[in-house]
Design brief:
191 residues, alpha/beta, Rossmann fold, 2 domains, five-stranded mixed sheet
């Protein structure tokens, strides 16, 4: 059994020393501590990926706090579930969670249930909000970036072939890519 540690701070000017000291205090050897300085919201965290690849059955992954590992409760639960299926334990020092014990597994199971409850609650609120908006005559989705009048003006300018797309876009107050999405562009002839 090897204890593998993961320490992360969100910005480069923050310090990892507190987490590293706590990981060492929990029995993680310095050479087994994976360190990262980037936001937890990033899905691409190379050191976390390296840690997860290095972990083997019987190993234990140790973090200072739960929020150091997962982007969200759902993400965290997913990681720990994957670890469990591979026979890898998980310890969060500050949160008192140790999935290698019956009590720790129970506590983490409660967290997982709360995460599922939160997802269901958000989904229900979203659906209820959409139903209420529809009942008031509102449609979902992003509002149009151009009015019908702007689109007609742009189309007429384009059809006359006297202006560039950039000039038309500036006239109707939009960008060229948005303009291309709203007007009918004639295919170029191959003469």
């Amino acid at each position: 059994m090897t204890k593998l540690g993961y320490a992360r701070v969100s910005t480069g000017d923050q310090n990892l020393d507190l987490q590293i000291d706590a990981l060492k205090g929990a029995g993680v050897k310095e050479r087994h501590i994976y360190q990262e300085k980037m936001s937890g919201t990033k899905s691409d965290r190379p050191q976390l990926e390296a840690l997860l690849k290095a972990a083997r059955e019987g190993d234990v992954i140790v973090v200072w706090r739960l929020d150091r590992l997962g982007r969200s409760m759902k993400h965290l639960v997913g990681i720990v579930d994957d670890l469990k299926s591979q026979g890898i334990g998980f310890v969060s020092i500050q949160d008192g969670i140790d999935t290698t014990t019956i009590n720790g597994e129970l506590i983490f199971g409660i967290f997982a249930s709360l995460a599922q409850f939160e997802r269901n609650l958000i989904s229900e609120r979203t659906k209820a909000g959409l139903r209420a908006a529809r009942a008031r005559g509102r449609k979902g989705g992003r509002p149009k970036s151009l009015t019908d009048k702007q689109i007609k003006t742009a189309q007429k300018m384009y059809d006359k072939n006297d202006w560039t797309m950039a000039e038309i876009a500036e006239t109707v107050g939009t960008t060229v890519p948005t303009l291309y999405r709203h007007i009918k562009v004639q295919p170029m002839s191959s003469a």
